[in-house]
Automatic annotation (TrEMBL):
This is SYT4 protein. Gene3D superfamilies: C2 domain (2.60.40.150). Keywords: Calcium, Cytoplasmic vesicle, Membrane, Metal-binding, Phosphoprotein, Repeat, Transmembrane, Transmembrane helix. It holds the Pfam family C2. It comes from Pomatostomus ruficeps (Chestnut-crowned babbler). Its main location: membrane. It is a single-pass membrane protein. Residues 142-263, 276-409 form the C2 domain. PROSITE patterns: C2 (PS50004).
Length: 414
């Protein structure tokens, strides 16, 4: 009788010990999880942009401010980069150090009056010329004013742009008589850096106060760059409305003395097209035995600029029509930053009928743009009813099947 009693006592003690150990482990995990601090904070994550700081890799980086962090920790400057892990301790917190600012404290909350006073010293002659060159039509249609600041961090070799606010934007929603504005910014001419702010709902005077830091840009190259701000209004049910744009050439702007506050009038987006659309070289061959049409997109030349950078990122979209109904489509790869593109891409289309009487083919040369809708640079149509060189080329491939015939064609307006 004593042995079962002893076994029962030891079993009870073992069960109590196991339950206590399990409860202690759970409490330890919960406390360690609650005290854990994330290694970094960020506002934006965009395609093609790395958020990690320099000590992790050598790619081009991007950072943005978090206003809540600046309010909770007064020791950190408002426009500092929160993605910098080098300044954090082992627990992920910032040490208490006094930050130095190149500009005066009153720049943190600038008033329109202060912007006007600072602008007199900061605006270059070239930028003054761009302001005074506004047409009377642009002055009549007021699109508002954009306020921003520029700075170069020599220690980290980083170019810093702070989009502060916009005043007097037009109402894009006719029902509520307001807008949902946000801003896309691109660094030209290479268009490698593209960022955007958050959308602010139902306001004509949005206060963004968002900082974008671009690493890996030498100070010697700043003079060759141009900032392009696109002001848009978010639309949930259709394409976002373009309010206007601001173009800032950085030539002549001195950033060595610290942060520079600037403001510019928002103007209408430049959608004017030049009279010449450029030329496209294509080669066609009709195989009567297999009833196929081989199309080779060879080259494009003298393409006009489709954006403010002066260069296009062209590609060609090929549409095959049967009795005015599109039955097939293809497209080439994008060629970056060139008005004279070499494609050399071949496509084979199956013809659903005997002969090419009801067949036509359309070439659309477009400018690739991630930030907005791709714009049509020029158009070319080949078929029996086409005029000019398009009709002549089509007649030749019908008369000489199995022969590859190439011709240059002038592009018409898209």
């Amino acid at each position: 009788d004593e042995i079962p009693t002893v076994v029962g006592i030891f079993s009870a003690f073992g069960l109590v010990f196991s339950v206590s150990l399990f409860a202690w482990i759970c409490c330890q995990r919960k406390s360690s999880k609650s005290n854990k601090t994330p290694p970094y904070k960020f506002v934006h994550v965009l395609k093609g942009v790395d958020i990690y700081p320099e000590n992790l890799n050598s790619k081009k980086k991007f950072g943005a401010d978090d206003k809540n962090e600046a309010k909770n920790k007064a020791v950190m400057p408002k426009n500092s980069l929160h993605l910098d892990l080098e300044k954090r301790d082992l627990n992920g917190n910032f040490p208490k150090t006094t930050a130095k600012m190149q500009s005066s404290p009153d720049l943190e909350n600038p008033s329109p009056k202060h912007f006007a006073e600072r602008k007199k010293d900061s605006v270059s002659p070239d930028s003054l010329k761009s302001i005074t060159s506004l047409s009377s039509e642009d002055k009549q249609d007021k699109l508002g004013t954009l306020f921003f600041s520029l700075e170069y961090n020599f220690e980290k070799k980083a170019f810093v742009v702070n989009i502060k606010e916009a005043h007097g934007l037009p109402a894009m929603d006719e029902q509520s008589m307001t807008s949902d504005p946000y801003i896309k910014m691109t660094i030209l001419p290479e268009k490698k850096h593209k960022v955007k702010t958050r959308v602010l709902r139902k306001t004509l005077n949005p206060a963004f106060d968002e900082t974008f830091t671009f690493y890996g840009i030498p100070y010697s190259q700043i003079q060759d760059l141009t900032l392009h701000f696109m002001v848009l209004s978010f639309d949930r049910f259709s394409r976002d409305d373009v309010i206007g744009e601001v173009l800032i050439p950085l030539a002549g702007i001195e950033l060595s003395e610290g942060r520079l506050l600037m403001d510019r009038e928002i103007i209408k987006r430049n959608v004017r097209k030049s009279s010449g659309r450029g030329e496209l070289l294509v080669s066609l061959c009709y195989q009567s035995t297999t009833n196929t049409l081989t199309v080779v997109v060879l080259k494009a030349r003298h393409l006009p600029k489709s954006d403010v950078s002066g260069l296009s990122d062209p590609y060609v979209k090929v549409n095959l029509y049967h009795a005015k109904k599109r039955i097939s489509k293809k497209k080439t790869h994008v060629k970056k930053c060139t008005p004279n593109a070499v494609f050399n891409e071949l496509f084979v289309f199956d013809i659903p009928c005997e002969g090419l009487d009801d067949i036509s083919i359309e070439f659309l040369v477009l400018d690739s743009d991630r930030g907005s809708r791709n714009e049509v640079i020029g158009r070319l149509t080949l078929g029996s009813s086409a005029e000019g060189t398009g009709g002549e080329h089509w007649k030749e491939i019908c008369e000489y099947p199995r022969r590859q015939i190439a011709k240059w064609h002038m592009l018409c307006d898209g």
